[in-house]
Amino acid sequence: MKALLRWTVLALLLAWQPLAASATATAVTEYAVKSALLLKLTRFVYLPTEQEDRPRHLCILGQNPFGDTLQQLNQASAPDQQVELVFLSATEQAPGCNYVFISQSERRRLGSILRQLDGLPLVTISDLRGFARNGGMVEFALTNEQGSQLNILINRKTASRQGITFNAQLLRLATLVNE
After folding, report:
1. In a 3-state reduction of DSSP, which class is residue 67?
2. Could you tell me whether strands 165-166 and 45-46 are parallel, antiparallel, or unpaired per DSSP bridges?
3. CA distance 106 to 62
4. Per residue in 22-64, pLDDT tens?
5. DSSP H or E run through 75
6. What is d(CA 20, CA 4) in angstroms, rounded to the nearest whole number?
7. Is residue 138 within 8 Å of 98, Cβ to Cβ?
8. 153 near 138, Cβ under 8 Å?
9. H or E segment and range at residue 57
């Protein structure tokens, strides 16, 4: 299963070959991989209020760990697969979002943030350790001793309370957790 996930990550990165081709011989960073997964994730999640003609809003709460990578990958995507990126300074701005990535800078406020976002038809995503087990919906977790394997953890119980479901393909790749 983990080998399949690694191949999936590789396929995701190759899908944005124009960006990779413009890069020099530098190694792919952790947040470049997470950027690719974050953008692809939006195509494998079903929101209760999502409409075909409405742009999808991907919001980043807290400090932006992605740098320019997320924006560059988004612009390199096909127009119908692009999302509108919004950078939030407070959870009160989240009701217009479909997806909210909660950055590491918000670790101390995580419980409060999740309580404030509870009940909104949006997907919470983070790379904070234990995020999915603590009530978040999707966690990008680094695994193994070197932290070089990325696993997707999904809390379906939390998501279903918000009316959010996941594509079966994504569920096969992910590890399911409960609160």
Report:
1. coil
2. antiparallel
3. 6
4. 343 345 788 999 999 999 999 899 988 655 556 789 999 999 9
5. helix 69-76
6. 21
7. no
8. yes
9. strand 57-61
What is this structure's pTM? 0.82
- Closest C-alpha among 52, 144, 147, 54 to residue 97: 54
Kindly state the helix (H) or strand (E) to which residue 87 belongs, with its residue range: strand 84-88
* Euclidean distance between CA atoms 71 and 103, whole angstroms: 16
Chain position carrying tokens 């995507």: 77
Residue type, 120: L
Burial of 85 (0-12, 13-18, 19+ CB in 10 A): middle
Tokens 């509870």 correspond to 118
CA 113 from centroid of its chain's CA atoms:
16
Contact 34, 61 (CB under 8 A): no
DSSP-derived secondary structure for 32-55: HHHHHHHHHHTTSEE-TT--TTSP
3-class secondary-structure state, position 112: helix
